[in-house]
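thoughts on my protein:
***
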Amino acid sequence: MDAALVVRSVWEGMEARNWGAVRRLVADDVVVTWPQTRERIRGADTFVEVNRTYPGDWHITVEEVLAEGERAAARVTIVLGKDVFYASGFYRVRNGQIVEATEMFGDPGEPPYDRSHLTERD
């Protein structure tokens, strides 16, 4: 399985709450880093449990996955009730499993300063 399909399948497995499938696609010794909250998750079982126990009825849409060789990048949208979050992740995949990941999560918000004369907004 190529890197893009592995990464897409993990996100889609989380949306489906198919934790067994997610676990099979993550290496036993995976290291996942979340720089935004300065957290590191070690091990596939811990990674699955962190996501399985995340509160609320959240839903994931995979917007895009790009890959070259063992490296992949993903962009997803996460909806929790009326809240929308965005995630970007960078992954290393070996032998059909994620072995390393860095994921960043962001909330939509207002620009930090007025730059409306230079930008467009949805």
Notes: DSSP finds three helices and six strands in the chain.
